[in-house]
Specification:
about 10% helix; elongated
Length: about 160
């Protein structure tokens, strides 16, 4: 009899809790160590690096950086990647979408291999801070120009015919 009363009471409590809208789970809790997860962003940056003729360029370093100072004195490079043979690159970054003090988000394409695949000028693109929220997928195309050839310092433009 005692067992019947306890089971009936438990059933009544479960029924009342369900009828009144009580649930056993609340919102998930993430281990954030002081920072709420809503302020972070999964940022995917992908695209291509090509020359002025539209041909892909391999081994161009593409990097994402946050600038914290107007004079570029405090620039933090978050991630780097190199373009593949087809000119494609991809960066996946987990960043603060509302950073304090960050004044610019830069993606830079820089020729770091010298004249191996051509000698190209560096190109910088600025990402709009308002586009970096939650999950952001940025598609970029860098069109790099050949660096102009620098004149030989020993050649004064004179013909040395004697």
């Amino acid at each position: 009899m005692k067992n019947f009363i306890v089971k009936s009471f438990n059933r009544l409590l479960v029924f009342l809790a369900g009828a009144l809208g009580f649930t056993g789970c609340e919102q998930p809790v993430y281990p954030t160590y002081g920072c709420p997860p809503e302020s972070y962003c999964d940022l995917d940056i992908s695209g291509f690096v090509v020359d002025e003729n539209g041909e892909p360029i391999q081994d161009i370093e593409v990097s994402y950086a946050q600038v914290n100072d107007e004079n570029d004195q405090d620039t933090v490079v978050v991630k780097k990647s190199k373009s593949k043979a087809d000119g494609s690159f991809a960066l996946r970054i987990w960043i603060d979408s509302e950073p304090i003090g960050v004044i610019a988000n830069l993606v830079t394409a820089k020729d770091v291999d010298g004249e191996t695949n051509g000698n190209y000028e560096t190109e910088i693109k600025v990402l709009d801070q308002s586009s970096i929220v939650g999950y952001s997928n940025q598609k970029l195309t860098f069109v790099l120009r050949e660096k102009p050839e620098t004149p030989d310092p020993e050649d004064n433009g004179e013909d040395n015919e004697e």
